[in-house]
Amino acid sequence: MLNKLFGLFSKDIGIDLGTANTLVYVKNEGIIINEPSIVAINKKTGQILAIGTEARKMVGRTPGFITVSKPLIAGVVSDFEVTEQMLKYFIDRAHQKSFSLVPRPRVVIGIPASITEVEKKAVEDAAYNAGAREVYLIEEPMAAALGARLPVQEASANFIIDIGGGTTDVAVISMGGVVASRSLKIAGDRLTADISQFIRDEHNMLIGEMTAENIKITVGSAYPLAEELTMRIRGRDLLTGLPKEISVGSQDVRKAMHGSIRSIITAVRSTIEETPPELIADLINRSIILAGGGSLLRGLDELIHHETNLPVTIIDDPLTSVVRGCGMVLEHIDELKPILVWSAKEAYI
Question: Which helix (H) or strand (E) holds 143?
Answer without folding.
Answer: helix 140-147
